[in-house]
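Example (one chain per record):
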Amino acid sequence: MDSNINKVLLLGSGPTQLGIENELDASAFEKLMALKKMGIKVIFINDNPFSVVSEEIQPANVYYQEINFENVKRLIEKEKPNAILPTVSGLNGLQVTWQLIDSGVLERNHVQILGISKDNIAKIINDNNLNDLLSEINEPIISSKIVNDYEEAFDFVRGIGFPVIVKPISPNRDTSRKLCSNGEELQAALEYSFSRTYVNQCLIEQSIVGLKEIEMVGVRDVVGNKILVSGLEDMDPIGIHSADSIIFAPTQTLVSQEYQRLRSATFKIMDALNLNGTCHVQFAQSRTDDKYYVTKVSPFFTRNTMLASKATGYPISYISGFLELGILLTEIKLPERFGNSLAIMEPTLDHTVVKIPLWPFEDVPDADRHLNTTIKSVGSVIGIGRSVEEAIIKAMHSSQYSPRDILPTAQKMDEDSLIRQLIHPLENRMLILIEALRRGFSIDELSELTKIDQFYFYKINQLLKIQEYVKNHPLCSEAVKIGHKYGFGDGMLAELWNTDIMSIRKINQDNGFRVTYKEVEPSAGEFIEKTNIFYSSYELENESSPFNSKSALVIGRGGNQLGPNTASDYYTTQVLIELHKLGFKTIIMNTNPNAVSLVPHLSNKQYIEPIQLGNILNIVEIEKPEYVFLPGNRHYLTKQLRKFKNLKVIILPPDQEKTSFNKNKANTAVDLFIDGNNILPITTTTLDTANNKNSLKYITNYYQPMKQHTKYGNYLIDKSISMLKNSDYQGLIQVLFDYDSLTDQFEFIGFRPIRITETAFLSKITGVNWVRVLVKKNVGNVDFNRLEKMVKPDHYLRVANMISQFPFNQLRANQHAGSTQQEVGARLEFKNIN
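Predicted structure:
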């Protein structure tokens, strides 16, 4: 390690959007842990209000600014860091870093780049340069060319023929890839791509649609030691974006020679780029011979890097933090929970992980639902099982295709529509595959139509047979036993038999059936490890035991969807942190592979299980937590859990149905905290609706303090306090008003608990973590006097603005007004008062 490195500039993720969830913030958190362990000071830039990392660094070292060249340049000149770490900022981070190199900023300020050399950054952000490198090391690539105009594009395509794929060069967080089969489609793709790139260039490449997509994730140190963490196999063929694909870990259909060939290719690429850190390489593998192509190289953290980490239990990002500093794999010890193992250990799996994407189409119904090379998923969930079938059913259940059926049907679809969707898949393709099998389509025929390997149809068909057997043997102990073996939980069996879950649990009790938990560990049980990451199975040995001291179970939100879900994971994480500070052993239950709340540093134990009542009760039965925390408003789950009087269930924030409105319109709010009879005003806020929509559900922009705070702030605060004195509201409460500029009057609208997204905003602008305050209020004691000293509604030196972000452009949908249920993320701005 370079002993001169004592201050590092860490580039953050920026706002959540399609293609970027919480995985970059989760990765940044683990790298922060590594940097802190080495005694390095961290400067952080990120304008994402839902970033967890920004609250784990001293406030003076956090800059809430957009990650662009000008902002980062000013920050370097002010803070004088020794090094910059761009690998948890995605492609945008590398682009900004290249601009800093190209302009001489890094050289003038003596700033090192961690993880990758400046020469190789140029190769990564420019596909043409990367292809040249791959050709030099004899790794096969597809024919491609960077074009500057339409004429050059059409000339190239005439030479290689259709189909081709078009994408922008060095797009700013744009992973769009357009498949073109004729001149008209090529023209449209070029128009779109030229409009999305700041260098006015596009890449055109030969299409390899239909080949098998394989992904490899490895790590390498500065002297060339390296391991492959995991191979991943997309069930969907090339032609469907990897983020929209159903993915399996480990690889399922490769023979040993194919696997070793791609492993060797990954290592060769990492060596050629002289990386120290992580690298994610994607391949197109022929189905008929040993030919393959390298399709993408990402020497930075991605969604599927996180998937590989979750599948194996290997802490990729944490270890990469040390590797990027120049420490060797042979010198790095894995965290204490791994025993005495060194980071050089290559993981082995004794389980299967399946990732299923989640879609935004319910909230954006006019978006094109066809799956292609343009990313459309907003999140994903995973299922873990001892068998492929068990992992599939768990992932499907976590994705919640339907709450009333285990494998939903498409029985009403006519034959022509079914065949059309087999060839041109939509987001419900798994249901279509199931229906085709139900109707007697042969596996060979389906594989030919879909380009999906036959292996997966055999596995899905096996699940259909099991479901049919279980369904035809209601309340039969043998059916329960077989159902459990293949991933059918108690709640699923209850739904199939139209009974209550307690009937199934009685069968379990009478027959000695009990759920056991297996550990996700990178050595597959070869070494003694206590990763404390578990998934359920019905086997003899249970590897999870309850804590001896008081514990609390926190139920995560699951996969990202539109709405407050990115903020929900921030919220969940803060609950975990505060519970730990209050002396609880913390247990998180979640299925989102990209969730910050599943970072092992943040809890004492993790369960990766579908978030359904039966699974929750199983965990409660073994862990016996003192409290069960349910962050986010999930009315059905809340109602079910509250039926169990022995459970202390805490809902945060309080139920949003507890509201009182005079009308559904407001533009001003007063935020307050209430603890018993004590009322603390926090701030005033101007609420802005998108496109002048006069409805509360369209309030998506927030300004603090309110724009007329000097004139009316104290008046509204006093009015709000007087109105709340005799109410039964507790916690964070918002009092809503509607200001009429013609009459210069404020009309009282009503009260509501402060939403998850706005709670994150409040935490960032006041310096008080209000989620943690709410946890203290529910299970500890709030120091109200201390809060009063920290929160001064009239004392502010800057104004803040949180602006919601929407996915309409990425989905090529019509420009909607933009409601709270259509938010994909937000950005935060601060401005000093002149």
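Caption: The longest strand covers residues 678-689.
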